[in-house]
Design goal:
globular; single chain; about 180 residues
């Protein structure tokens, strides 16, 4: 980790557990994301972009955030371990309670954890998209631990935007079996 880490307020790793399967996101130190239009000084650093919302993933390290416009949002990029795709946190967090527990009935508890309901799901009243009360992406990522401690919670998952990759029919499967282990 860099001595003057501009993303020190973001978690280094995040673990998401869903139905006994665990996924781990680890912060990358050679990439960062610009949420919104890219300043001219960073145009040559852009690796890829998302259109909705506008987010650009750049190669390199951010040494001094103070040199960028004050309204510019920068975040780290994470990698799904082991050797998975990169993901950019949007600041939204998906939660799901047990099926008999409507999210709307837990609004006060969610607010006490520092979150607002951003989008209720009519087809799944026990699930919703949340955002931190202050709208800060780092706050949302750190606040997930409080959400996991709520009674009746089944899933807490940060929205991680990932680049779509087209594969040809000749490409190997995304997670090949390790040598010496069969799937039989």
């Amino acid at each position: 980790m860099a001595l003057n880490d501009p993303f020190s307020h973001f978690p280094l790793r995040m673990t998401v557990v869903a139905q006994a399967v665990s996924r781990v996101y680890v912060r990358e130190f050679d990439c960062f994301a610009v949420h919104g239009p890219v300043p001219p000084a960073l145009i040559t650093s852009v690796l890829y972009s998302f259109d909705d919302p506008v987010i650009n993933v750049c190669r390199g390290e951010v040494s001094d955030i103070s040199t960028f416009p004050a309204d510019l949002t920068l975040t780290p990029v994470y990698r799904l371990e082991p050797n998975g795709p990169q993901g950019v946190p949007s600041g939204k967090v998906f939660i799901r309670f047990q099926s008999h527990v409507p999210v709307e009935g837990r609004r006060q508890e969610l607010e006490a954890c520092g979150f607002l309901i951003r989008e209720s799901l009519s087809y799944a009243p026990h699930a919703a998209w949340l955002e931190s009360c202050d709208g800060n992406i780092a706050t949302a990522l750190h606040g997930m631990a409080k959400l996991r401690d709520l009674n009746d919670i089944e899933l807490v998952n940060p929205q991680m935007l990932m680049r779509r990759v087209q594969r040809s029919p000749d490409d190997p499967p995304p997670n090949p079996q390790p040598q010496g282990i069969s799937s039989e």
